[in-house]
Write a structure and sequence with these properties.
By secondary structure, this protein is mainly alpha-helical. The chain has three domains: 8-70; 73-112; 115-166. It is built from eight helices and two strands. Strands 1-2 form a two-stranded antiparallel ribbon. A hairpin with a 4-residue loop joins β1 (18-21) and β2 (26-29). α6 (118-128) packs across α8 and α7 (134-141) packs across α8. The longest helix is centred in the middle third of the chain and has 28 residues, at 43-70.
């Protein structure tokens, strides 16, 4: 028998026999054992019993998984005053912090884009925001591909310099 340790269901499902797990051992009842101990039973009876056993183990496994999902870390309990729903105050603080971060990020992006020329900014946004290739930009601007590449390289250098100074 393979050593399946995920769950009793896995052990039972992937073995040919019916598996019983006890505290100190695992016992597998094969078809031959079953028929030897129950001469009045058939192979079909064994298959039904195996199927029933699989269903019982699966149900047990699902219940264990559902219980595991209910387990909550202590930090979450402390953070929410031993309830599963954060207080309105906590939610408001989180919302304000998120909005503040968004505003800071937007201001930083505005500063970064402000260090570029109008053409660099437009082409840079076309590549980042509009997902356009340098060749597509070159066609739109009616310039050479190399011109667009050099423009974006210069923009990237300015952005890196700006970020290294902040």
């Amino acid at each position: 028998m393979k050593n399946y340790t995920d769950s009793d269901y896995a052990i039972n499902k992937f073995s040919k026999g019916i598996v019983y797990r006890f505290a100190n051992e695992v016992v597998e009842i094969t078809l031959e054992d079953y028929l030897a101990e129950n001469p009045d039973k058939t192979e079909n009876d064994f298959v039904k019993l195996k199927s029933l056993s699989d269903e019982m183990y699966l149900d047990k496994s699902r219940k264990e998984n559902n219980q595991t999902r209910k387990n909550v870390s202590m930090t979450l309990l402390e953070e929410t005053d031993a309830t599963f729903v954060p207080s309105y105050e906590t939610m408001l603080i989180r919302r304000i912090e998120k909005e503040s971060k968004r505003q800071k990020d937007a201001a930083l992006i505005k500063e970064i884009l402000g260090c570029l020329t109008d053409i660099q900014r437009r082409r840079y946004l076309m590549t980042i925001q509009d997902k356009m290739t340098t060749r597509q930009i070159a066609v739109i601007d009616r310039v050479s591909h190399q011109s667009v590449v050099e423009c974006l390289e210069a923009a990237n250098k300015k952005i890196k310099k700006f970020l290294s100074n902040t």
